[in-house]
């Protein structure tokens, strides 16, 4: 399932602008703007998914099969890779705090816990018709080939991928592969179902920082509102920068697929049923991420003296 993340260096800014110009020429791109896959989606969607339930809920077994067929089980598992960003957000990556954080990561970001959380939320929120649409596509020959490469990209570290991804996008730019770049951008836009992803990133960070404050790990020099607004400004800027990262990541992930295959994928992603599935998946991933960061912060109470933020 195409839920991705990434970021290009400043040295690639000129090529990024060229790629952005090319990608924007595709008239079929009607969904919202791409964001980095490092953080995935949250607040307003979670309210939606828990308040509007399908008339007939899928069984737990059906949802478990759905997660495996679509590759979303691997996307959920990859949430654990985001745990390393916790000390960085708090400015404590080079302290003993980071060591304690790493020790706790295995238990708090336990894959079984994460996947059970996702399964429960999805079971209570997904409509059977939407589940069937996604399941039918991803169980096809093309769908399974896509799941294989997407699973690999989910579990690869950012550092391992970004140099190769940047090089792949550069090669497309140099060869004038405008049509392919436009299709890749179309894929990314279809998979990014929220206009408010900047708000989502800020919300995840704010929930974590507030939990860390309550645990005595940090202290705020500003009130909650000002902190949130600052995080919101930063996340919106990161969202725009991450757009080119996601394009590069897609160029690498789908390099062995034809334009025709990718156009067929884009058609499936843009279907209203698949859009609802992706909206739910992005919301689930982000809610679990925020929840696990809050749980980590609670376990750190009394670990070390407070630091100012």
Describe this structure in words.
- The protein is mostly helical and 309 residues long.
- It has one domain.
- The chain is 70% helix and 1% strand.
- It has helices spanning 13-23, 43-51, 60-70, 72-77, 85-89, 96-108, 111-125, 128-138, 141-155, 158-174, 178-191, 197-214, 224-253, 259-270, 272-299; strands spanning 218-219, 307-308.
- The longest helix has 30 residues, at 224-253.
- Residues 4-55 and 305-309 have low confidence and may be disordered.
List the helices and strands and how they pair.
Blueprint: H1 13-23, H2 43-51, H3 60-70, H4 72-77, H5 85-89, H6 96-108, H7 111-125, H8 128-138, H9 141-155, H10 158-174, H11 178-191, H12 197-214, E1 218-219, H13 224-253, H14 259-270, H15 272-299, E2 307-308
Parallel strand pairs: 1-2
Q: Tell me the series of helices and strands, N- to C-terminal.
A: HHHHHHHHHHHHEHHHE
| Total beta strand runs | 2
Helical run tally: 15
DSSP strand content: under 5%
N/C terminus separation: 36 Å
Order of strands in the sheet with most strands: 1-2
Q: What percentage of residues falls in helices of 4 or more residues?
A: 55-70%
Taken from the alpha-carbon principal axes, the silhouette is globular
Q: Main β-sheet: number of strands, strand sense, barrel status? A: 2 strands, parallel
Which structural class fits the helix and strand makeup? Answer: mainly alpha
- Overall pLDDT: 80
What is the domain tally?
1
Radius of gyration: 19 Å
**Unreliable parts:** 4-55, 305-309
At a glance:
The chain has 309 residues and is mostly helical. Helix content is 70%, strand content 1%.
